[in-house]
């Protein structure tokens, strides 16, 4: 299939490479010339703008952009995709944005005669490179069925979550819980160690008791508990605190729009904001434990 791909960053570039590997023809666009030339070297064609890409003979367009403002400008802008794309071309936005913006863009696409799916991902840059992402997809089920084989070149779990915007709903709900649970584990681990307990023993107890969760078992924030996690390498790599802050902001914003309380989500957002303001936004999100550790450097 001839696919258009916009947004060749940390996630988009490896995803686009996997589409090439699966034998698809690709036309790409990014504001960064270096990102484009790296994909062109791998076999993609380049387009000079979203408008030119939309007018190429593509059957499907995928976007992987930083935030809602970029998504709105790329789709709805004067020189954006919807102003130039032929009706019938399917559009998939895999960026993480708030559900209401996703619904607004999907509705504009529908009016223009273009089926649209929101398909945010989890799995990080490692999952993007390995082609093992989870796609949470919102939109018409027939469009989902049609595009599933394409998404399968980039991901392992591809889940239909309901109507337009529901992929983003699943993503913000999961990541809000992840932020809250990481802070909970950090608080409990720091308390236990401050009271004289060995971190590894405490983690072992938690992980065979009712406090067990992904943040304690698979991604424990206390250094020395697990190998091959960011806590074991100075909190480098992994999922940046600023990305978690962004997702917690999306959850709070979406909650406000439906007047739904997210008390712990808002508190988690403030804690990550504090951590980011202290200059730690680039550290993995499990480094939030350094807000609690008296002996920590950060
Ligand atoms: P990134 O900043 O590395 O890449 C974004 C790319 O979009 C850049 O190459 C940038 O030049 C390009 N871009 C920006 N505006 C553009 C425009 N108007 N037209 C064309 N290209 C434009 O971001 P990323 O880490 O690849 O993340 C992309 C999305 O995926 C975000 O919404 C993020 O929240 C989400 N996400 C990221 C991760 C992760 O671990 N990095 C995991 C899951 C989801």
UniProtKB/TrEMBL annotation:
Occurrences of domain 6-phosphogluconate dehydrogenase NADP-binding (ranges): 3-162
Pathway: Amino-acid degradation; L-valine degradation
Residue ranges occupied by any 3-hydroxyisobutyrate dehydrogenase-like NAD-binding domain in the UniProt entry: 165-292
GO molecular function, one term: 3-hydroxyisobutyrate dehydrogenase activity
EC number(s) from the headed UniProt entry: 1.1.1.31
Enzyme class at the top of the EC tree: oxidoreductase
Entry-linked Pfam families: NAD_binding_11, NAD_binding_2
PROSITE patterns, per the entry: 3_HYDROXYISOBUT_DH (PS00895)
Reactions catalysed: 3-hydroxy-2-methylpropanoate + NAD(+) = 2-methyl-3-oxopropanoate + NADH + H(+)
Keywords assigned: Branched-chain amino acid catabolism, NAD, Oxidoreductase
Annotated family: Belongs to the HIBADH-related family.
The name this protein goes by in its record: 3-hydroxyisobutyrate dehydrogenase
Organism name: Geopseudomonas aromaticivorans
């Amino acid at each position: 299939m001839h696919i258009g791909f916009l947004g060749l960053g940390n996630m988009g570039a490896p995803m686009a490479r996997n589409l090439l590997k699966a034998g698809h023809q690709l036309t790409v666009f990014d504001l960064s010339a270096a990102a484009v030339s790296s994909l062109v070297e791998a076999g993609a064609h380049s387009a000079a703008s979203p408008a030119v890409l939309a007018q190429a003979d593509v059957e499907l367009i995928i976007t992987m952009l930083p935030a809602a403002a970029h998504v709105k400008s790329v789709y709805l802008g004067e020189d954006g995709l919807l102003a130039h794309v032929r009706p019938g071309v399917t559009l998939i936005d895999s960026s993480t944005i708030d559900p209401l913006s996703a619904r607004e863009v999907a509705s504009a696409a529908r009016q223009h005669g273009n089926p649209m799916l929101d398909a945010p991902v989890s799995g990080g840059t490692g999952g993007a490179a390995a082609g093992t992402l989870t796609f949470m997809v919102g939109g018409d089920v027939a469009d989902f069925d049609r595009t599933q084989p394409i998404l399968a070149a980039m991901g392992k779990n591809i889940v239909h979550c309901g109507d337009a915007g529901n992929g983003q709903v699943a993503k913000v709900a999961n990541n809000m819980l992840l932020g809250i649970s990481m802070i909970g584990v950090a608080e409990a681990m720091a308390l236990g160690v401050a009271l004289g307990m060995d971190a590894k023993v405490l983690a072992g107890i938690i992980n065979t008791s009712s406090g067990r969760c992904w943040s304690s078992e698979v991604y424990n924030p206390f250094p020395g508990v697990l190998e091959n996690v960011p806590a074991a390498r100075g909190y480098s790599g992994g999922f940046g605190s600023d990305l978690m802050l962004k997702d917690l902001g999306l959850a709070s914003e979406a909650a406000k729009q439906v007047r739904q309380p997210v008390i712990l989500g808002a508190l988690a957002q403030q804690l990550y904001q504090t951590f980011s303001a202290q200059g730690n936004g680039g550290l993995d999100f499990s480094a939030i434990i350094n807000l609690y550790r008296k002996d920590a450097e950060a």
